[in-house]
Amino acid sequence: MAYSLSLFLPCFNEEPNVERTVRASVAALREVTDDFEVIVVNDGSRDHTGEIAERLAAENSHVRVCHHEQNRGYGAALRTGFLAAQKELVCFMDADGQFDPREIRGLLSLADQADIVTGFRLNRRDPFIRSVNAFLFNRLVRLLFGLKVMDLNCAFKLYHRRVVDAIAPQLESTGAFINAEMLIRARKAGFSIVEVGVHHYPRVAGTQTGANPRVILRAFRELGVLFWKLR
């Protein structure tokens, strides 16, 4: 079945990566559908990410840009992307080049089987401490919410429009907890989830923020707030 498809890319200081990722995303989507859009969500970048994204949008009508005047956090960038997306299927992927947008075919192959298709990294290429934090976080979410997903924070997921319309307006997280919050609320609402393996590549340019202690603490704080609200 042919779908229309939105792919949005949250960006914060991705000047070395954003053009390559956008161009690769446009090429990948062009191979699977004629009806698509690529949305760059520039989360208050202090480098030239926004300017590069605007130039790409001027060159290609399939590309759009949303700007945050100040950095508001990864969760806020995803919320903006979900609300900006206009197509029947909504996918997001980090703009840092650690995923291959051509693997969206794998997510699309399962789109008829579930409301949400979430990737799990086959060969996670992150620093050791970040991998340990992710393992502990996944275990805690499973314990508190009963959500059995192998890789909660894998930044390569696909949602049907019905999920986005129902869940995105409820989202509250502004940080890294956003992925877990979306899946927890979706499962609680009765939506189905299926997982698929995706390859993960080393970051070759730019700086990761996911291992920042403030980012990690915010995620655990937001987890506690949601648990209190939904218990």
- What is Rg? 16 Å
Overall 3D shape: globular
CATH topology: Spore Coat Polysaccharide Biosynthesis Protein SpsA, Chain A
- List the uncertain runs: none
Order of helices and strands: EHEHEHEHEHEHHEH
What is the C-level CATH assignment?
Alpha Beta
Can you summarize the main beta sheet? Answer: 7 strands, mixed
Write out the CATH superfamily name.
Answer: Spore Coat Polysaccharide Biosynthesis Protein SpsA, Chain A
Q: Can you tell me the number of structural domains?
A: 1
Helix count, DSSP H or I runs of 4 or more residues: 8
Strand order of the largest sheet: 3-2-1-4-6-5-7
The CATH level-2 architecture is identified as: Alpha-Beta Complex
Strand residue percentage: 15-25%
Helix coverage percent: 40-55%
Structural class: alpha/beta
Mean pLDDT: 89
The CA-CA distance between the termini, in Å, is 39 Å
The number of distinct β-strands equals: 7
3D architecture notes:
- The structure is a single chain.
- The chain is of the alpha/beta class and 231 residues long.
- It has one domain: Spore Coat Polysaccharide Biosynthesis Protein SpsA, Chain A.
- 41% of the residues lie in helices and 19% in strands.
- It is built from eight helices and seven strands, in the order βαβαβαβαβαβααβα.
- The protein has helices spanning 18-30, 49-59, 74-84, 104-108, 128-145, 161-167, 178-188, 213-230; strands spanning 5-11, 36-43, 63-68, 89-93, 116-121, 156-160, 193-198.
- A seven-stranded mixed sheet has the order 3-2-1-4-6-5-7, sandwiched between helices.
- Helix 2 (49-59) links the parallel strand 2 and strand 3.
- Helix 1 runs parallel beside helix 2 and helix 5 (128-145) packs parallel to helix 8.
- It is globular, with a radius of gyration of 16 Å.
